[in-house]
Amino acid sequence: MKLLPDSIRTRTILVLLIGLTVSHLASMVVYSTDREQALATANEQRQADRLAVLAQVIDTTTESLRPEVAEAISGQTLHIVWDRKGAVPDSHQEDERRAVIAASLRPHFGVLDDSRLHVFVISPPGPAASPLSSTLHLLHHAPIDQRLQVSLELKDGSWIHFHLSVAETAGTWSRQALVSTLVMLLGTLVIAVWATRWITAPLASFAHAAERLGMDVSAQPLAEDGPQEVRAAARAFNQMQRRIRSFVEDRLQMLAAVSHDLRTPITRLRLRTEQLPIETEQQDKMLRDLDEMEQMVSSSMAFAKDEATDEPSQPFDLAALIGSICDDLTDAGLDADFDWSGRLVYRGRPLAMKRLFSNLIENAVRYGQCARVRAVSLPGRIKVVVEDQGPGIPEDQLEAVFKPFYRLESSRNKRTGGLGLGLSNVRTIARAHGGDVRLANRPEGGLSAVVSLPSNSEERQES
């Protein structure tokens, strides 16, 4: 199966070419065989009539002139010998040809039995034909050096012998047949390419629509046109997209509503805790828990707001954006460096991209002591690598850290471990742009975060 083409379009073209070629060749063989049989029958009848006329001429000629007449009417393909005694070689007779010739001779010589008419083929002596040469003869109908001998007893008892070449019909695989096959293949290929492109165009549209849906649930719906089956599939796809968009919007609204409603009871609890008559250690713990809860609620509302924001895509300098993040951290006394010179124009959502790289670079500086950022431009892809020199992440938690509210630290201290929404936002933004984020521990120590983004038509790199 690995030898088969990978695309439906190529497979369809291959099936059409093979099917039509086999059908064309088979029809040519059937047509050629029928034509050859008709030509052979007509040729045999013509030869039989010719022999009958010549035999009648010689039979009515005086005996002394018969040898001269026979010599005079002999040619390249026909040689006539008149023999008074009529010695006939002992050979297997050609019954079918004998019947045709006997029918043509009957008006002139009456009914001829086997003693008066002999018809057989004389093959020249030579090496026996090999199976390969016999097969080639059957396929190409190549001429064979054979002669047909017809021996007839005349009315006076003498014999006349006709030696004529066996006519071969035109071969099936002639030049015209090959040209016809090539023209058929070329015409089939042109029509197949056009037809498969027309047929598979809806599949390509579905693929692009599915890719857009994976990046943006609010993307434009698929056009509901084309054949009936395509329209039905497009309607089902658009309905699925509307349901997904409704599902996501409902969950975001629910998250925002719950987070908003939690602010009031948290505020009341804070006021009641602060109004306790005596400050105790438990009161401080309660206030810290309330601060963390409020921070979680604020982060959840910010997360829902960011997801609900429909920021338009536009071209921007991705290198300048990352460089500004690193410069701001460097101005704050932190170790952040971006290894890239020139422009890296990318089409996307600038604010979302800034949140993505700010989160990754700040995490590298906060937990890995430094941030070493570099960009790699590949055919069709852009990769941005953020590396640090920290302790890394356990291998079994490299994927778990992308879950919302998942933290490696168990202290639940927002000043050390955060709230666990940063990496979740990072991956969400990257996948909304058709890319992804992967984390890996470096062999020399530290963590490496690789952001892979698809390039687009408006992307230009200068380095």
UniProtKB/TrEMBL annotation:
Alphabetical UniProt keywords: ATP-binding, Cell inner membrane, Cell membrane, Kinase, Membrane, Nucleotide-binding, Phosphoprotein, Transferase, Transmembrane, Transmembrane helix, Two-component regulatory system
Membrane topology: Multi-pass membrane protein
Compartments, as annotated in UniProt: Cell inner membrane
Residues spanning the membrane: 12-31, 177-195
Annotated catalysed reactions: ATP + protein L-histidine = ADP + protein N-phospho-L-histidine
Domain of life: Bacteria
Record keyword Zinc present: no
Gene Ontology, cellular component aspect: plasma membrane
This protein's name: histidine kinase
Native species: Telmatospirillum siberiense
